[in-house]
Amino acid sequence: MDIKINETPVRTSRNFRVNNITINNIDIPNKLDEFKNIEIIAQNITTDCNKENINLVYGNGDVLLSNINKEKNSSLKITTTGNNKQIKLVYSFDDKNLNLVNDVFLDIKHDSNIVIQYCSNTKKECFHNGIVKLIVRENVKVNISIVNMLNNNSYNFDSIENDLEENSNLKYTIVDFGGKYSISNYYSNIVGNGAKNDLKSVYLGIDNQVKDINYIAHLKGEKTDINIDVQGALKDSAKKNFKGTIDFKRGCKKAKGDENEFCILLSPKAKSIALPMLLCTEDDVEGNHSTASGKVDQKSLFYIMSRGFSEKEAIKLIVRARFNKIIERIKDDEIKKEVLSQIDERLN
Amino acid sequence: MASKTKVEDINRNIYDIKDKDNYEFKMQKGLNRKIVEEISKMKNEPEWMLEIRLKALEAYNKLELPTWGPDLSELKMDEIATYVKPKTNLNTSWEDVPEDIKNTFDRLGIPEAEKKSLAGVGAQYDSEVVYHSIKEDLIKQGVIYTDMETAVREYPDIVKEHFMKCVPITDHKFVALHAAVWSGGSFVYVPENVKLDIPLQSYFRLNSPESGQFEHTLIIVEKGASLHFIEGCSAPKYNKVNLHAGCVELYVKDDAYLRYSTIENWSKNMMNLNTKKAIVGKNAQIDWVTGSFGSKVSMLYPMSILNGEGARTEYTGITFAGAGQNLDTGFKVIHNAPNTSSVVNSKSISKDGGACTYRALVRVNERAKGSKCSVSCESLMLDDISRSDTIPVNDIETDEVEFSHEAKIGKISDKEIFYLMSRGLSEEDAKAMIVRGFAYPVSKELPVEYAVEMNNLINIELEGSIG
Fold this sequence. Notes:
The complex is a heterodimer of chains A (348) and B (467).
Chain A: E1 3-5, E2 21-23, E3 38-41, E4 45-48, H1 61-71, E5 74-80, E6 84-93, E7 99-108, E8 112-120, E9 127-136, E10 141-149, E11 155-164, E12 169-176, E13 181-190, E14 196-205, E15 210-219, E16 225-234, E17 239-248, E18 255-265, E19 271-280, E20 285-294, H2 298-306, H3 311-327, H4 333-346
Parallel strand pairs in A: 5-7, 6-8, 7-9, 8-10, 9-11, 10-12, 11-13, 12-14, 13-15, 14-16, 15-17, 16-18, 17-19, 18-20
Antiparallel strand pairs in A: 1-2, 3-6, 4-5
Helix pairs in contact in A: 2-3, 3-4
Chain B: E1 23-26, H1 33-42, H2 47-62, E2 84-86, H3 99-107, H4 110-117, E3 120-125, E4 128-134, H5 136-140, E5 144-147, H6 148-154, H7 156-162, H8 173-181, E6 186-190, E7 200-205, E8 212-213, E9 216-221, E10 226-234, E11 242-244, E12 247-252, E13 257-265, E14 270-273, E15 275-280, E16 285-292, E17 297-300, E18 303-306, E19 312-321, E20 326-335, E21 341-350, E22 355-364, E23 371-381, E24 387-396, E25 401-410, H9 414-422, H10 427-443, H11 448-457
Parallel strand pairs in B: 3-7, 6-9, 7-10, 8-11, 9-12, 10-13, 11-14, 12-15, 13-16, 14-17, 15-18, 16-19, 17-20, 18-20, 19-21, 20-22, 21-23, 22-24, 23-25
Antiparallel strand pairs in B: 1-2, 3-4, 5-6
Helix pairs in contact in B: 1-2, 2-8, 9-10
């Protein structure tokens, strides 16, 4: 079937080719066996199966949402009982676990570091369609990372939603490397006064990979804050749509929103579309956005090469340098290492 | 609570004076084949033009309304008269223009400006151009500046080659509508290497209620030539919706230069659904300067298509939306050749519940290697009942490009006010100065008389220091 998903919150002209993305001839799996390769490392939590349907404000469209509600083969509800240095969930795809249709509901009442990873231990096509719903309770600090390292034959659909209560502080990191198609939808409901959301993400597209990234933040509470920073690189014929929306809702006095996207183009065939939106119905706010794209900085390249590196190695260093400050935020050394080695591998 | 700057509405006294709806002929309302044929017949047009009109009507019936942007549901084509012929023919002397129409243009200062600072003037009243003039020495140099109807009759080859070629009739529904019922507008032809050092100006006035204005502007600036063209528009306010769906086609040939300035001050019952495009040749340049103040709804996105190597474009625009206005404006640029460049500088001010949207497209195609593009937009919100959105699409298809985009949104900075007040200014003067400063990069690009007009438009009056 063909599906049209990841709609922008406000439409613009169809000719601009950015309102949504159409994926043709996709088989959405149903009647699935339970996904068994899940590793959970954590203390101070209770886990349960999430029995209720999660109704999303945005998400990846009705077809994929009903696929999750009807067909999910993994479901998890995590509630914290104390502070957590680390909650780690690893979903490993292999020949027997090729399809994951899941939801993760996180009710975080204590300061926590969370890492969720999807990885392929197979070259076969994997399918992931999932929801990560997070509630950050009053005065709680959360640092969460989602790392997509599926193989390049796969489909990856992420629907992420957050509710931020008063004075909560959410650091979100997304690493988006894998998938033939990787479609991510992120919505943050920043409703509590003084709540802060800092979202940083990196993407790396090679071959014919398609990335469609749709980040939306609603600033509703007073003195709320959103900071979106997206760094990416595109090689070969990879294609990326970045849609980022900061929506200042009436009443969010003294709120601040910043959005920045930077895309390094590593090939003349790579294609990059960016739509950074600022929507505003409140005057007492500060909003900024900037996007830029272009080749690797030639001066830096020349400098590194003059020190004896090959062009390829020099490009890798420059990309790693741009990504590093974001990757550093992942609170798991093992996964951090894997991410760095994936950059080298994918840019070879 | 901090006081709010009270920015007065534009003083519309001059613009709102209505003349009696005193026409020679007003087409029945609505749109169908018979109406289109009748317009063509009244204009005594050649067959090829009627064919274009009928094709466009067919396209209009097929095309959908935009699925994005402001609400257009109030626009009912059945209630709009597409053609209103004023009681006069085309004149070349203001003395011959009927008194009531002449008075209108007098109030708008057109004949005065013509004497002082213009090389030629066109004035359209409802559907027809009522006055056109151009300086003798320009005629000698081969410059043509006339109304579109005359151009269709006298220069059919040039018109045929360019009419609705830059903007295809199927571009969108209102372009199709325009091509089906177009009337009036200006035709400018500047021959090779002729440089006009003072501007030409066309002024469009829509007086008749429940009607539409569909003027067509076609400008061809030949190789190495240069022109500054100014377009002004206004209408008195009526209770029912009026429609403006003009079309501007600009051809800037190799090494040529065109500056296209617009001050749009339609009344607040106007749906302004206008289309403007320029095709720019090798090492040529088009600069757009646009001020959008009037209309109830505007959807206006001038477009530069940089087809020649080294072509350049600059867009400088300001939008000011007050109560009941939804102004959706912006700019589109297509980089289609190597080493092209574009610079965009957009400003908007929203107040009293008005909504401003900056909607834009930058597309750098694969062949546009070595191109540069820089976009900056700033929005000022003067209260918390207004709305300001920024929706820019940046589509980059080559790595050999330097592209950057930045936008800012917010209110007048307290720090800036504090600084100016510490220098002895009152709070009101400080705020007024900041708003004028905000608009300055645009107003300085306008011709002097328009800059004065714009400063009046943004004239700030403060009511008390406690808001």
